[in-house]
Structure formats: structure tokens, C-alpha cells
Amino acid sequence: MKQPYNTTIYNTALYMRLSRDDENYGDSVSIETQRTILQQYAKEQGLHVVGEYVDDGWSGTNFERPDFQRMMDDMEAGKVNCIVTKDLSRFGREHVMMDYYLEFLFPEKRVRYIAVAENEDTEKGLSDFVPFKNLFNEWFAKDTSRKVKAAFKAKFATGQRIGAYAPIGYRKHPEIKNKLIIDEETRWIVEKIFDLAIHGRGAASITRILIAEKVPTPGFINFQRDGTFANIYAGAPEEKSYAWTIAQVKSIMKDETYIGHTIHYRETNISFKNKRRVRKPQSEWVRVENTQEPIISEQVFRQVQEQIANRRRKCKDGTTQIFSGLVKCADCGWSLSYGENRQNSKPYGHYHCSKYGQGTRQCSMHYIRYDVLYAYVLSRLQYWSGLVQHDEERLLKQLLNATDKGQAAARKKQAAELKKAEKRKAEVDTLFARMYEDWAAGRITEYNFSMLSGKYQSEQAELDEKIEQLQSAIATESQNAVDAEKWIALMKECVNPTELTAELLNMLIEKIVVHEAVKGEDGSREQEVEIFYRFIGKID
Fold first, then answer.
1. What angle do helix axes 246-253 and 187-198 make, rounded to 10 degrees?
2. Tens digit of pLDDT for each residue in 269-296?
3. Closest CA to 338 of 290, 370, 312
4. 10 Å Cβ neighbour count for 530?
5. What is the C-alpha separation between 161 and 181, in angstroms, rounded?
6. What is the three-class DSSP state of 280?
7. Per-residue pLDDT tens for 182-228?
8. Rounded Cα gap, residues 365 and 356, in angstroms
9. Which intervals of the chain form a coiled coil (predicted)?
10. 244 by DSSP, 3-state: which?
11. Alpha carbon distance 395, 461 (integer Å)
């Protein structure tokens, strides 16, 4: 005989969550306070607790929390059929996902949910105010995010540095919060890197020297001091403590921290809901000067930056190859290495794939003679230089790959569509807000509210996506035009080039991609070489 629903044995999960922002509110939302409340409630209600699930330091707008996902897995496996939290906000602060769990998933899986402090229980029926509570909890997260950003901005403006640990060469001030002071024990590492760089060493060479001399890495130094990265270094072999990477060295060489400045907002979260970090364009970075005592003089730093930009590998005879760093393999992407054939009566230079040259046979030769490459690249630059001088308008149209008339018509149409979509979005937002008011006042039924709510939310999402696509398309077209004009301006500086130099190549060209040569039946040799120019890429 089937047991009535109210005799169900509830295998209960006690879920606790605390974000970093919640810590400002003291013990009222601490993990220990939540645990005390939930354990007491479970005992009084006779719930069978099968486990505690704790996410400490996780935002409620993120549902990819480790213990939350573990709890969901246990629910899917049938180990849990009741979830208890202190309140709705502990479960989550994103109203769409909250509606999904409370209105769809939990009823489908026959899982009971209880928010103790708010007296919400799916077995008894959730109150009509739950959607509003979820909306408020989401608004609270958004408002908190805005306030935190404003607080950080104010701190940055006063020269404060926010970070889990100090960069190598510095340590946190023992008395002044968010202030750096020079670390006399490690400043020598920074000075050594810049000294090697100023004497012509590149990042790869410096990295090899640091490893050979067993110079400790920033991560290992932090581990020694306070256990940071303990999971990486604990029990690891000695080599791990000085396992420098080229990326680490490059980062230090380009970091304005060492001349006393601080750069903020290099990265940001996608939104208050999506915490994934994305790189911001350099134009949006915020630079605050004189935030700490410098380790490196600005003159040395600027000279190193110039050498990074212009550095070219030296050949054994002391000459510099003008194509160095520009010529790439079309198949594996590695740089092509320069070599010389001195066995002929007339020695000549050539390039070949450096990955193939390692002897692993992971790629093919991609062989091309230096004089052939030189002549081809010079001829292309001469062609574009002539076109800029005699028919600049034609070249600009070619770069944009459309007529001016066609571009104008396309931009006009996109702008009109964007304006229309934005107007409709504002209308839908207003209708949605009014519908909530009508529902709360009892002027429309629950059925009509649910039906219209789903319709408006769907239209809002479609409009948001359309607006984003149109804005992106308009911005891309505008940027393409700006980039094309930049490249033409550069070409105007190189009137009728008669020879190639490293400066000329690096000013105009981003990379030169060499394909493997193909032999014809008649013994002829054909080879494709693609030139990707700065700002505009490849031109057909």
C-alpha cells in the first residue's frame, strides 16, 4: 500500500553559503550561525540529516559552487529529497535560476525545500511573495557589487593596492593597509632581471639564467612566507621552487609597479552574475602614479620597453635579421629559423620551420630562401605604397571590402534596427513592471501573470541579444574603418621603399606566414606566402 505523502522520510541536506561580501554583516550570516539554525531546525522537525554542504566565499549569483553541485548530484542520485537553508538568499541570488529550482526542478524531482528564517516550505506551498524576495535578493547582489566597485575605485584613486599578496620585490606594509614597501630580501631578483634586460638579454635568455642560478620564483617565496600555493609546493621537488617561465619574466619586465606606479582595471568580471574575468582594452586601464617607492628607475624601464619592442635575434656573425620574429610556419605556427648555406660558391641565407629543426619530425621544412622572401615582401610593399600615392580611395575601399555607398546603407540600416530594438526593449521593461504591480494588486490572475511573464522574459532575452549583436556589428565596422586609415597613414610614411629594414617591417607587418612548397609535374616549385599587415590583417 502506498504511503501518504506526509509520512515521507526526508533525507535532508543542510546547505550553507557565505560570500566575501556577506562577511561585512557579522555573525548573523556566518557559516557557524547558519549551521546552528539549521541543525536546531532539523532536530525539532525530525528531519534525517544526511549531510552538510558548505560553500564559503561563493557569490549567490553563481550556481557553479562546488558543494552546491555536490548536493545537486546527491539529489539526482536519490540520496537527498529535502534541502534546508537559513533563507532564500543562502540558496541563491539570481531570480531566474531560483524560479527554475523552486517551480520546476524540485517539484519534478519531488524534493522538498525549506527556507527556515522566512518560513517558506514547498510542502506547505510557497508564499506569493517568493518571486519578489528572489528579485530583491538579486537586486541586493547587484547593489552590493556596485558598492564594492565604488569602494575599490575610491581606494585606487588614493593610491591603495588591493591584492592577495605583494608582487615580488615588495611586501605589504606592516602598519598601513593596502600599501607596499620594498622587500630588501627579494628586490635583487627584480633588479637582476632588469639588469640582464638592459644588457641585451631577452625574456627567454633571462628565464634560463634564473633557472640555472636557482633563483626562487614569486610563488615559492609566498609559499615560504605564509603558505600561499601550499598545494603546489608542498612535497614538490626542489626544481619546482625555481621553475621560472618566460611569461613570468615578461610580466615583470613590463610591470609599471617597479617604477612606483599601479595599473588598475586590466581585467573585469563580465557582470555581477558572471564572475568570469575578461581582459579590458588598454584604453580603459586606470594608471595611478607614485603609489609606492620604485625599485627600477623610469629611464631603465623605458629603455627595456623599447628593447622589447625592437629586439631582434643576433646571428653568429653579429648581424641582425630583419625578418626575425615575423616569419611563421603556416602549419604549426612556430617561427621560422634563419640559416645559411655556405657550401655553394655563392652562399645564401634561408628560413626553415624551427619545430622541424628540432629533429622531432612534428612538422615539415617550409624552406624558403632569404632573397626570395626579401624580393616578394619588398614588391608587395612597393605595390601598396604606389596605390596609396595614386589611388588612396580605391585602396581604402579594397581594405573595407565594400563601396562607400554600400557601407553607408548597411550602417544606416543597422542603426535603425538598433534604435527600434532599444525602443521596444524599453517598452517591454515598462510593461513587465506594470504587470507586477497589477498582479500584486490582484488586477490580473496568477495564470495570466505566469503566461505574460514568460512571454515578456523571452522577448527581453531576444531583444538583449539582438541589441548586443547590432552594437557589436556597428562598432566592428567603425573600428575597421579606423584601422584601415591607420595603416594607410603608415604607408604614406614609406614612400617608394627601395630596401627593407627591421623598423619598416615591424611598423607595417604583423606576421609573414610561409606554406610548404608544392612541386609541379614539370619540376617547377610553387610556394604560398601570406603577409598579415598591422591593423588590417591579410589583404587579398
1. 90
2. 544 344 455 555 666 666 778 888 888 8
3. 370
4. 14
5. 11
6. coil
7. 888 888 998 999 888 876 677 888 888 999 888 888 877 776 666 55
8. 6
9. 411-480
10. coil
11. 41
User: What is the average pLDDT across 31-57?
Assistant: 90
Q: Which helix (H) or strand (E) holds 396?
A: helix 392-400
Cell numbers at residue 90, please?
543562502
Question: Cα–Cα distance between 182 and 187 in angstroms, integer?
Answer: 7
- Per the CB < 8 A criterion, the answer to whether 112 and 77 are in contact is no
Cα distance between residue 469 and residue 417, in whole Å: 11
Q: What is the DSSP string of 54-108?
A: EEET--TT----HHHHHHHHHHHTTS-SEEEESSHHHH-S-HHHHHIIIIIIHHH
- Quick check: 370 and 351 in contact, CB under 8 A? yes
Is residue 526 within 8 Å of residue 520, measured between CB atoms?
A: yes
Q: What is the CATH number of domain 170-310?
A: 3.90.1750.20
Bridge partners, 287 (sequence order): 263
422 DSSP β-pair partners: none
Q: What percent of the chain has pLDDT over 70?
A: 76
Tell me what the mean pLDDT of segment 242-258 comes to.
86
- Closest-CA residue to 314 (of 230, 205, 410): 205
| pLDDT for residue 51 | 92
| Domain boundaries of the chain, sorted by first residue | 5-134, 170-310, 315-540
Q: What is the mean pLDDT of residues 25-35?
A: 73
Picking from 47, 59, 247, the residue whose alpha carbon sits closest to that of residue 138 is: 59
Domain 5-134 of CATH type 3.30.70.2740: no
| Residue 499 dihedral angles phi and psi, to the nearest 5° | -150, 160
- Please state, in angstroms and rounded to a whole number, the distance separating the CA atoms of residues 537 and 483: 10
On whether the CB atoms of residues 312 and 502 are closer than 8 A, the answer is: yes
* pTM for the predicted model, two decimal places: 0.38
DSSP state of 159: T
For the chain, how many residues are written? 540
